[in-house]
Amino acid sequence: MVDYSVHGQVAVLEVNNPPVNAFSHNVRVGLDRSIDKAIKDTNVKAIVICGKGRTFPAGADIREFDQPHKEPSLTLVFEKLEKTTKPVVAAIHGTCLGGGLECALFCHYRIAQKTARVGFPEVQIGILPGAAGTQRLPRLTGLHVAMDMITSGRHIFAPEALKYGIIDEMFTGDVINAGIKFAKSVMNKPLEDRCLMNKTVKDADQADQIADEFMSLVKRKYKGFEAPIDCVKAVKASATLPYREGLKMESRLMQKLLLSGQSAAQRYAFFSERAVSRWKMPGGNFQTAKPLPIKSTAVIGAGTMGTGIAVCLLNAGYQVYLLEQNQKFLENGVKTIRGIIEGSVRLGKTPMAVAQKAATLLKPTMKYEDLADVDLVIEAVYENLSLKREIFSKLDKLCKPTTLLCSNTSSLDIDRIGTATKRGDKVAGMHFFAPAYYMRLLENIYSTQTSPTTAATIMDVGRKIGKVSVLVKSCQGFLANRMRGPFAVEAYFLLEEGSTPQEVDSVMENLGMPMGPFKTGDLSGLDIGYKIQTELAKSKGVELSVDSKFLMGERISTLTRTMYDNGRLGRKTGKGWYRYEKPGGKLATPDEEEILERLMYSCINEGFKILEEGVAATPEDIDISWIYGFSWPKYLGGPMYYANRIGLDKIYQRICYYHENFPYSSHWIPSRLLLKLSENKVPMSQWCSGTDSKL
Ligand SMILES: C/C=C(\C)C(=O)SCCNC(=O)CCNC(=O)[C@H](O)C(C)(C)COP(=O)(O)OP(=O)(O)OC[C@H]1O[C@@H](n2cnc3c(N)ncnc32)[C@H](O)[C@@H]1OP(=O)(O)O
């Protein structure tokens, strides 16, 4: 588990526990013995710790967290490194994470290959760096950097680590040679200053302020997660408590987190994320089927999904032909893609070099013929089976025989798309989630004809573009939407039965989802649900009407159609279940303006009809009735007074707008009196019984 060798006066301890050299119990025992051996050997004057194969240890063995703890603990082993009078060098390559980084922080020196990454990802499995990481990293970097790294779990590359002082030097070439060379250069140098436990945290005087800043950040960014909060508390302790007391605090918080249900669930998710890559389907699996090489790709459709998919492919270095039938749509698509990539560069998420390369890889086109030689086509037009079949049939005729043809459908039968071609084995579904450049899931779908090689290839592409890919069999809605179907439908039924979108959303958001079903619907576009519903009906030979409440004996919601008919398609139109600051905006607010207008202007219109018909002689009659009959707030003076304050012009225009949109509600037929008064700009003093001074 730890290979021990001596090179002149340097002992090399090489952790050997593939694939990631995790510190399992056996490794801890092996490392403990090797450290003792090196310390005892009087010929050994310096020690190098490194990892065999692909990486420096990537942390504790997470699989052992569910078992009773066995001594020695990591901290116990690592403390021997700091205490020895022989310099200890961590020679880092690959990923030095969690317990791996803690090990390195107990060493007197750290050197790393340029491509190596270091980090504390524990927060992502619901715990904190519990082998003194929360106390030692701040002593090197200060609180700010440590809080950032520990609460986010992000990995940083060696150059950034060098900047923060986490590593002392970068090296190229062989790890062991570099370790030995460095160890020789520091032999016999005093070590006191190299022991982190002796150091203080440089920005300790700002501990309260920095901790408060991160506490509010993590509460907002990682809402509902316990670990980030405890990470902040533990890191703060490094500045406010003596080292040993800080360790006790870290240990207490760690025990609490380990016992929490959240950590167990997050560890389950960690392994599940890896398990889904071990896919299987009739006739093959991840071991038997080999992916085909994919270099050039095409995306058909430059809408929201198509552009998002193109961004994923471009960022991963694939050439992308972006096809649209209309010059304007194509130009808009290219603009969107550039905007997404530039935004990502600004946020530091995409390196400039990647963005520059992406720009050269994008090939906008309106000609299908340009797609003839690509290796993979992803069609991303709207959900319409006949249209998709038409496109696939065309592609089948013009693309080279090896081209894989995939559809970004969220629900349509892949078999029925495949039968439009003579290469059903090379047809599959690649269902991206909106926004495609951001959401991690890729649902790959095989039909009865799809070959395991095609499945292997799209799973491989998914991995290369940074997605977590699952492979599923084609059926109505596949996995994700089929399972989410009842969720969405029940949410609509709840509205029909009296709940509000905000109420439903907040229940799900309180459960921990970042967005409830209505905000999510607005984000994806409410036309999708409508189109899926209509396509489904069509495929069953049913014509849905505005008030259809059943489809094939199943209850359906009339709201899907209503929202579509009213152009409330979500964020893209600036209004859906919520109102947004502009079409494409992100700030969801309940559509207060429309609520207010529809409730009040309809009554005001009625008020003018009441005046027109002489049912009430004056607007004062109406206003007083509201004040004393309906508790209308006196400070608003009654609805007719309120209407005048807003302006009869505006009221009349909005009433006409609602009349156009809701022709079946007679209360929206505009009052003739209102029209007359607004056209002639008659002041209220002339249509009420009072005087100007009264107003
Ligand atoms: C207290 C707590 C302490 C001291 C800790 O250290 S907690 C652990 C902190 N470390 C981590 O959380 C690292 C987790 N691992 C990763 O982030 C990645 O695996 C990697 C970046 C190290 C490598 O990524 P990649 O090359 O893509 O490989 P895989 O992720 O597919 O991993 C390969 C297999 O190794 C298993 N694995 C990885 N890390 C661990 C671990 N720490 N303990 C146990 N097993 C680990 C991983 O599950 C893969 O195996 P399969 O699941 O596919 O069987």
UniProtKB/TrEMBL annotation:
GO terms for biological process: fatty acid beta-oxidation. Belongs to the enoyl-CoA hydratase/isomerase family. In the N-terminal section; belongs to the enoyl-CoA hydratase/isomerase family. GO terms for molecular function: (3S)-3-hydroxyacyl-CoA dehydrogenase (NAD+) activity; delta(3)-delta(2)-enoyl-CoA isomerase activity; enoyl-CoA hydratase activity; NAD+ binding. Monomer. GO terms for cellular component: peroxisome. Its EC number is 1.1.1.35, 4.2.1.17, 5.3.3.8. The keyword Lyase applies. InterPro entries: 3-OHacyl-CoA_DH_NAD-bd, 3HC_DH_C, 6-PGluconate_DH-like_C_sf, 6PGD_dom2, ClpP/crotonase-like_dom_sf, Enoyl-CoA_hyd/isom_CS, Enoyl-CoA_hydra/iso, NAD(P)-bd_dom_sf. Residues 297-474 form the 3-hydroxyacyl-CoA dehydrogenase NAD binding domain. The keyword Ion transport does not apply. PANTHER family: 3-HYDROXYACYL-COA DEHYROGENASE, PEROXISOMAL BIFUNCTIONAL ENZYME. This is Peroxisomal bifunctional enzyme. It comes from the Eukaryota. Keywords: Fatty acid metabolism, Isomerase, Lipid metabolism, Lyase, Multifunctional enzyme, NAD, Oxidoreductase, Peroxisome. It is found in: Peroxisome. It catalyses: (3S)-hydroxydecanoyl-CoA + NAD(+) = 3-oxodecanoyl-CoA + NADH + H(+); a (3S)-3-hydroxyacyl-CoA + NAD(+) = a 3-oxoacyl-CoA + NADH + H(+); (3Z)-hexenoyl-CoA = (2E)-hexenoyl-CoA; (3E)-hexenoyl-CoA = (2E)-hexenoyl-CoA. PROSITE patterns: ENOYL_COA_HYDRATASE (PS00166). Pathway: Lipid metabolism; fatty acid beta-oxidation.
